[in-house]
Design goal:
The protein has 331 residues and is of the alpha/beta class. It is built from twelve helices and nine strands. The protein has three domains: 150 residues, Vaccinia Virus protein VP39 (Rossmann fold); 57 residues, no CATH class; 84 residues, no CATH class.
Amino acid sequence: MDEMTRSVSDMYTRFPYPSPTKGRRKYKELSNLLAVFSLESGVDLGGKKILDAGTGTGHRLAEAALMFKDTSFTAVDLSQASLAVAKATAQEEGIRNVEFRIHNLLDDDVRIGIFDVVMSMGVLHCLADPHRGLRNLVKNIADAGIVFLYLYGKLGSRERMRRKQVVATLLRHQVDFDCGVQMVKDLGFALDEYGWSYKNDDEATINGMIVDAYLNVNDILYDCDDIHNLMAQSGLRGYAIYGITTQDSGWFFDTAASGPNGILPRTTNVAQFLKTDLLRDAYAKLDVRERYRLFDLLYQPNGYTVIGFTDRAVEHLPADHRLVRNAIAVR
């Protein structure tokens, strides 16, 4: 185990994320993502196998497993302490369709299994080598499978990173979680970016979220070009940005200039910025990657949900589907 991986493991052993308290029924991001994907794509997840790589304390996965009772889930994490919370939550909720395993995503020699869907949400940024970790995950995807990633965005994280540097400077760039947590509270730095919310939470949960947001020992940020480079080295056929988050809001992602339509009312809408024929004509000449760059600048995401495709993953989708329309091939 490399030194960075050991440091991350030690951090989450002391401060399991998102909460050290078992049975917390309120983290619905994964269940909502899978439900919308199934509805939008027509893919029935019943009987499918899903991997949650970096499940942490498993609170998000628990909601997904309860919603998709006929789906088989495998949850892996590096932290024994986090998995202990996840297992206790599953037992308390009577969840029977999840298998838990200790696993290091940088272990090249161990395959976890073959899965129809691989999810790794807010995890790659913690790895010493995200490219290597993603390549290892791709080895576990079925021929027609997909991968979902959640990656932190550069442009929308500038304020959080400024605050993080304030605390790091006061700590003289030493790792001291207890002192750092108190400093964040004394400075009044709120957890107001999408993904962190501690209203009505217990003190241990608040402290864990502060560590994850402001004291994380490895915090890699991405823009659309970084995402492209990551996916180009993954072994996947292509990818698309599925959704973005900005501060306390989230949108499904579409580069179409016609505005939202269909079953996803909260969708990015570049038309609101293109008020003249000059702007609309200029936008029409951009390819998908160039449109991604423009969306970066206009929306300044602090997070991206990215979907990666194998060769056969989008065969059943119509050519005008937003995932096909926004897809970028990398091989």
